[in-house]
Design brief:
- The protein is α+β, with helices and mostly antiparallel strands and about 325 residues long.
- The chain is built from 12 helices and 10 strands.
- The chain has helices at about 1-10, 40-50, 55-75, 125-130, 135-150, 160-170, 180-190, 200-205, 240-250, 255-265, 270-290, 295-305, and strands spanning about 20-25, 30-35, 75, 85-90, 95, 105, 110, 130-135, 230, 235.
- The strands form 5 sheets. A two-stranded antiparallel ribbon has the order 1-2. The chain has a two-stranded antiparallel ribbon with strand order 3-6. The chain has a two-stranded antiparallel ribbon with strand order 4-5.
- β9 and β10 (about 235) form a beta hairpin.
């Protein structure tokens, strides 16, 4: 499971996906050094402050959708999308993490047979069929996540996994009247029992409810392992980002020879970890300067809710542990 998590995170380069910097191994344990999201879980934010209104939820859900789209374009299925695995990196920025159940597929229709994830977010085919199509399971989980963001409750609720399974297979849930018709239409489309007619990720992005939202693109897929430059007839060539990073690392006493040695060890090396942290910061800052900063609707919304007196707030609610079905 840990090997899959490392492999998946090594393959992804997106501003709304938690980055892996370094892998540390001891005699008894393996530690992953990852990007820090200081705002905590989306689950805890909703539990403490209540649900988001649609205006505040749209940009956050668009970021999550863009992250999942990036995974699927790289043939990676998350298989455990939920509010506990979405983290605030700032008041209006979220990132998807925890790739412990993720897997790489050959194509979008490849049948998968390992049944895993969190029961409240599980698609009906996980309970019903011998195999399932990974990307459509992720789409279903996005629908459950959207419902939770807007209502602070789950569409399918039960005290046991058996009871939850029955509710999901029956496909009966109530959409509150206060949600807009466009939002209602999107949730119903995503939570269709048959994955063949379920709303696709591309249709989610093009839905009326998300009209006008931006879907952040991937970061440049530069090499995440420091090493030798590419050579041509004119000599060695580094990317502009790599040159800048190497100059910064030189200030820390990290030489080109040390970087070339780190290439052999890959992510299991502190030089590689330092290189990735600086490179990621450079790429992120570069991206910020190339795009206009928009006013944070999410921040305004959260500021207006100074106390968890919202009727849909869930006090002292505990995070559910991810279980294998």
């Amino acid at each position: 499971m840990l090997a899959r998590e490392i492999l998946s995170m090594e393959s992804l380069h997106h501003p709304h996906i938690i980055r892996l910097y370094e892998v540390l191994e001891t005699l008894s344990k393996i530690y992953l050094v990852m990007e820090y999201a200081n705002g905590g879980e989306l689950f805890h934010r909703i539990s403490q402050h209540g649900s988001f209104n649609e205006k505040a939820a749209r940009p956050l859900f668009a970021q999550i959708t863009a992250a999942v789209d990036h995974m699927h374009l790289h043939n990676i299925v998350h298989r455990d999308l939920k509010a506990e695995n979405v983290f605030f990196h700032g008041p209006n920025t979220v990132k998807v993490g925890d790739f412990g159940f993720s897997t790489q597929i050959q194509d979008s229709q490849e049948p998968l047979r390992t049944f895993c994830g969190s029961p409240p977010y599980a698609a009906p085919e996980l309970f019903r069929d011998d195999s399932y199509v990974g990307p459509m399971v992720d789409v279903w989980a996005l629908g459950v996540l959207l419902y939770f963001m807007l209502t602070a409750s789950m569409p399918f609720k039960a005290t046991t996994v058996a009871g939850l399974k029955k509710q999901i297979l029956e496909g009966e849930y109530i959409i509150p009247d206060y949600l807009s018709s466009d939002c209602h239409f999107l949730i119903v489309g995503i939570l269709k029992q048959d994955p063949k007619i379920r709303t696709s990720l591309e249709q989610v992005k093009n839905s009326n409810w998300l009209k006008g939202q931006s879907f952040p693109e991937a970061l440049p897929e530069v090499g995440m392992i420091p090493g030798k430059a590419d050579c041509n007839g004119n000599g060695a060539v580094f990317s502009s980002a790599d040159v800048y990073v190497r100059e910064k690392l030189a200030d820390f006493g990290i030489t080109n020879a040390m970087l070339e040695e780190a290439e052999r060890k890959g992510s299991r090396n502190n030089i590689t970890g330092t290189y990735r942290i600086v490179l990621h910061r450079v790429l992120s800052e570069s991206r910020c300067t190339e795009t206009n900063t928009v006013e944070s609707e999410t921040l305004q919304f959260l500021k207006s809710k100074s106390s968890p007196k919202n009727g849909r707030s869930k006090k002292n609610k505990k995070s559910k542990t991810c279980t294998i079905l």
